[in-house]
Structure formats: C-alpha cells, structure tokens
Amino acid sequence: MNFRLRRIFVICGDPGGASALAPVVRELLQDASLSVHLAAYYQAVNVFEAQHLPFEELPLDLSIEGAVAALRKAEIDLLITGTSNNQLDLEKSFIAAAGNLGIPSLAVLDFWSNYALRFSDRDRDMSYLPDRIAVMDQLAYDEMVSEGIPEENLVVTGQPAFDHLADASASFTREDRERTRRGLGVGRDDWMVIFISQPFTTVFGSDPGPGYDEQTVLADLLEVLETLSGRSGRRLSVIIKPHLREAYPWWRDIRSDTVYVEVAGGTRFSSLALSADLVAGMTSTRLVEAAMLGCRTISLQIGAEAGAHFDIERLGVHKTVFSKERLQRQIDAYLSAPLVRDARRMSAAAGNAAEKVTALVHRMLEPEKTAERQ
C-alpha cells in the first residue's frame, strides 16, 4: 500500500498568534506521518525565528488567487491559521482559498477579544470562518457564540502559548530572580515594575482609540512612581517591555530624575515577570500570562472613554485602574505590603493545549475514521 504524508500549511502574521501556533507546529513536526509547511508575515517572522522554526516569509501583496496557487501546488490536506487583526490579515486570504479548494481549515485563537472581527470582511460579514476554531476556554467559547459564531465551529483546547507557565513558575529560583535583575541594572531590594507596552499609537494612529495609549499610561505610571519615590525608602524601577508591532522606538526618549528606567532586551518574559514586584500594562496577553504566573498585575486604562474599557479582570488580572489617583493609592498599598504570589488558575493554561490542538488536527485529517469510531 502506498503511504502518503499528510500535508499541512500553517500561516500567521501577528506575534500573539505566532506564539500560540509555535508549540503546535513543534508537536506536528515530530509526527513522521505529516509534512508541515510554515509561512509567516509581519511580526510572526520574528517569533518563528526566535523559536528556531523553519518557515517561508510571505510577500505582503499576496492575493486570494496567490493563496489558492500556493495551496494547490503543495497539495495541502489541511490549513492551520492564526487569527491576526493587522489590516492585512493574510490568514483570511488562505481561509478563502482553502474553501475554494475544498481543503479543511483550522484557526487557533490566542486572545479574548475581537472575535467576529477576526473572521469578517469589510462589511462585517463573517466571510472567512474556518471549519474549526481552537479556542482558549469556555469563556471564549461562550463569548464567540454570543457574537454569532456557530457552536459547531468551536473546540475548546486551551492556549498553547500558556503551556509552559506552570513549569516556568515552579522552576524559577531566587538566584534566577537576582540574575535577571542584575542583567537589567536593578538591585535585589529595588521595587521593580514591568511595563508591557502595546502598539496602540501604531494601530489607532490619529483616531482616539480607547482614550489612552501606551505612551499616556506610561507617563501616568512614572508620574505616580516619582511622587512615591521619596517616601518609599527604596529605589523604584520601571522596565519597559516593547511590543513587536510598535512602529518606532518611542521608549528611547523616556527619562526620569527619580525612577530608574530601562528597556528589556531579549529576556524571556516569564523571567521578567517573576523577577518583578508588579507587572503593569493595558490589555495585553502578557498581562494575563503574568497573572497566571502568580505575579501582581494591574491594567492601566487611565482615560478610557465611557464604554470603551476592556474587562481584563475576567481573565485573571488582579486590578484595573481608570485614574492616576486610584493608581497612586494602589501602588502605595503594594509598596507597604509583602509580595505574595497568587497564581490565577485558568483552564486556558492547563498545560496540554498544544497536544489538544494536535489531536484536533488528526481528527480533521481523518474524518472518515473519526466517524467510524463514533
């Protein structure tokens, strides 16, 4: 009997989606019955390079016709995509191409927002729904159904990018903490805040967006820390974690006379978070990740327009602040309290999401056998 490798095409553009797909791709590459072709554009290129995964960089002008040609030429049996929302959204072209060719498609969701938008055309019709969507947990499942996404398309698998969190937290030692801090110029007894940036100014441009952005909330954070620095008795430090999608390095111009400011380089995020006294950000996946690691977390949505705030506390983040006054009270309380790890347990970080997505891939590749077993 002739044996034929099952061919899978994986495509992603955004860094969050690439981080979710990378553990899945690694699982698939270990399967001798599969041939996996990984394709990337935009910041997914950086993520896959850092993960040492072989990939093809796609041209940014690729059309649906080009996607059809690529899938047909490679005789693809299954398409796997991220769920990018970056105005280019090449994943949508490939989902449309797979539909034209009768190829089953699977999208892997990485965050709890913009569900319908990720699969919609300019008229907000969900024209790019894949056959299956791997979602993080029951919360995402329920919220997607409420936005009109059919239940039969959804499978709860967990978030593959979170699979490593439990091990990362358990294996992180006091020596690891001190080593990470030294590398950033932060002392053992300094009070260290990680600020997770996001590309709001890049995404929204001149549009007001939610009423705040990465630059305004960091300015608010520094102002509060400068106010508190004299009475804290400790050196206060802010370590900025840039986002891959930020268009220019605005953080290079950040200065403070009383607060130590540094930019994180290639340090692994879990090490940064576990070395910090507080992890601050806006609405980033990294903030949720830090909460799952047991870190103190705070969402800065200072200046949020009415109805525009994002409920990130439902995802485990400890606090959300909407004013500088509340931020100052919260940090003042943290400065006088001992640091206690409080891991937010969520099914999205159960630790076996990549395996569950891989099992779903095999079910989609062998629908006849699956039907027979049922």
What can you tell me about this protein's structure?
The structure is a single chain. By secondary structure, the chain is α/β, with parallel strands linked by helices. The chain folds into 2 domains: 6-162 and 351-373, 3-Layer(aba) Sandwich (Rossmann fold), CATH 3.40.50.2000; 165-347, Rossmann fold (3-Layer(aba) Sandwich). Helices cover 38% and strands 16% of the residues. It is built from 14 helices and 13 strands. Strand 1, helix 1 (15-29) and strand 2 (34-40) form a beta-alpha-beta unit. It is globular.
Describe the protein's topology.
Elements: E1 6-12, H1 15-29, E2 34-40, H2 44-50, E3 56-57, H3 64-73, E4 78-81, H4 90-101, E5 105-108, E6 132-135, H5 138-146, E7 154-156, H6 165-171, H7 174-184, E8 191-196, H8 200-204, H9 214-232, E9 236-241, E10 260-263, H10 269-275, E11 278-281, H11 285-292, E12 297-300, E13 319-321, H12 324-335, H13 353-365, H14 367-373
Parallel strand pairs: 1-2, 1-4, 2-3, 4-5, 5-6, 6-7, 8-9, 8-11, 9-10, 11-12, 12-13
